[in-house]
Specification:
2 copies of one chain form a homodimer. The first copy, chain A, has one domain: Electron Transport, Fmn-binding Protein, Chain A (Pnp Oxidase, Chain A, Roll), CATH 2.30.110.10. In chain A, 14% of the residues lie in helices and 50% in strands. Chain A has 2 helices and 8 strands; from the N terminus they run βαββββββαβ. The first copy, chain A, starts with a strand and ends in a 9-residue tail after the last strand. Chains A and B meet through β2, β3, β6 and β7 of A and β2, β3, β6 and β7 of B. Chains A, B: It holds the Pfam family Pyridox_ox_2.
Amino acid sequence: MTPRRFQELSREESLRRLGSVRVGRIVFSHQALPAIRPVNHLVDDGQVIIRSHAGAALMSALDTVVAYEADFVAEGDRIGWSVIVTGVARRLKVPEAIARYERLLQPWVPDEMAHVIRIQPELVTGFSLEECEQGEPGAA
Amino acid sequence: MTPRRFQELSREESLRRLGSVRVGRIVFSHQALPAIRPVNHLVDDGQVIIRSHAGAALMSALDTVVAYEADFVAEGDRIGWSVIVTGVARRLKVPEAIARYERLLQPWVPDEMAHVIRIQPELVTGFSLEECEQGEPGAA
């Protein structure tokens, strides 16, 4: 099998890849337990935007530090990438911004999405796994 | 567009779907922050098995409650499913079991994987989004 190379991605490249897919997962604490929910997102001006309905568990994540992850895995799990953003989740309050994101961001799960949430990335990490020539540095 | 139906999955069906894919994400606390790592898994006898290397952040998740998520999203994010398992992560110690899983479970990220971890599902939730006929109950 072709060897693969594990590569760390820059912050800029990580955010670019995150913005290239539409579904990711928000990770937070809920009732003192680790929780995760798949949602649609968009990356706008370096920030991650998601929507939530009012009764959702993830409303308990507001004003706390959350992680947001997206990945892409292909060719029998041989290659792909993953990006993880960590930062505080805040509910947007400016009506014009809310209206704009409501137009741009269609929720994956059909539900009444009352809130728009912005995650301000403090920490951005990413890696990719790519095929490479045998003998190349980093080949595994 | 064809309407979609949101459907909760039974525990049995959730574990079946989890076992039908190879990559998921373990969710845990690391240094008091929410953390997530994509890994390969298998479902064996109703338990989720993953591998980890000794220096990984997720070693701090051992003997704590973690969440494990896998999903499948298709057709422009219109349909798919997601399964979330919550339970305690334990390191396997029986050499025969470790050797067996090391044969069965090839890590996604090429690295020396010293440990085999089992998540015993306490809570299993899942949902699916499927297309359905207009007027069917639950169509959205």
